[in-house]
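Fig. S4 source data, part A: sequence.
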Amino acid sequence: MKGLLLKDLYMMKSYLKAYLFLIPVFWILGSFSEDSLFLTVYSCLLTAMIPISLQTYDEKEHWSCYSCTLPYSSGQLVSVKYLLNLMTMLLNFTMILLGQLIRTLCVSEFNLQELSLLLIPELFISVLPTVFILPIIFKFGAEKSQLANIILAVLIGVVFGGMTIAEDSIGTETVISKVLQNPAVFTAIALAGIVILYGISWQISMKIYARKEFH
């Protein structure tokens, strides 16, 4: 598994240089901008697309055929993409949280509970592409999964557009105050939902890949 992770990290360095440049830029801008939500969401989206982009490059280079000659199981070949997503997501959220902590301490009174609740939607954004698109890529290939990418992008846009409209009509403070009435319940349900979706997607991808034949 260590070898597979190293292989993907080397591919990131070779093929995803734009990602490696843009993501830190959004970290920095998000720490000083008043509209930090958009910037941090964008870094989450870019981070979430890393395993999908790497799988696309794997397919172009016929990695699946070559990997059959290596001592790795189909489960390991699938799991490395999910593990890479978790690793990059953890790094991304660590930097986002650090930037937001600095910004919060500079402009207002620090509220860790409120900050953690605001990060929950960004956590969903970080896992949605992996959860929904990776199984489709493993099943149909990168080229045929382009429609899924478009649908997911539209869905994310609609959700965040609806959130923006709701904030404008109801008020951000009102929305947050309602959520803060039961913060533990909200956080537990959100995290449980993410873990369940992630686990289901992971299992589906492994079953799909195990049944595939490569020539």
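Fig. S4 source data, part B ends here. The two ends are 23 Å apart (CA to CA).
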